[in-house]
Amino acid sequence: MKKPAKAKAKNGAAKTSAALSASRLIDARITELGGWRGETLARLRRLIRQADPDVVEAVKWRKPSNNMRGVPVWQHHGIICTGETYKAVVKMTFARGASLKDPAGLFNASLEGGTRRAIDIREGDTIDDKALKALVREAVALNEAKAGR
Fold this sequence. Notes:
This protein has a single domain, classed as Alpha-Beta Complex (Aspartate Aminotransferase, domain 1), CATH 3.90.1150.200. 45% of the residues lie in helices and 18% in strands. It is built from 3 helices and 5 strands.
């Protein structure tokens, strides 16, 4: 009986270590970007964490062609959203955005898809903090419902 408990503890430690590593990679990406894109990604991250204190950060889709940077991903019983950065836009893509209510009309990209929806934020754009946090909470609730929680 002792071995499964140790394995479980190691697994939990590994998950914690991976989350810390992902957080450091996201920190580094924000610093590397600097300027309005770094500030915007940092602000989105802060709002996501405020909306869901149990969110887990990850960095996915790392490959040599993009210098191993990868994409910041926020998860809670599945992917909530990603934070992609481009030259002219910071894109916050909600994995199941088409299933979310968006009364504030935040979604302005990837509207034609059947599953995802995105928010493109350009330099100088404002972010409705309250509406964004509500959208994150709704995404978490949808993930939890799908996970049977």
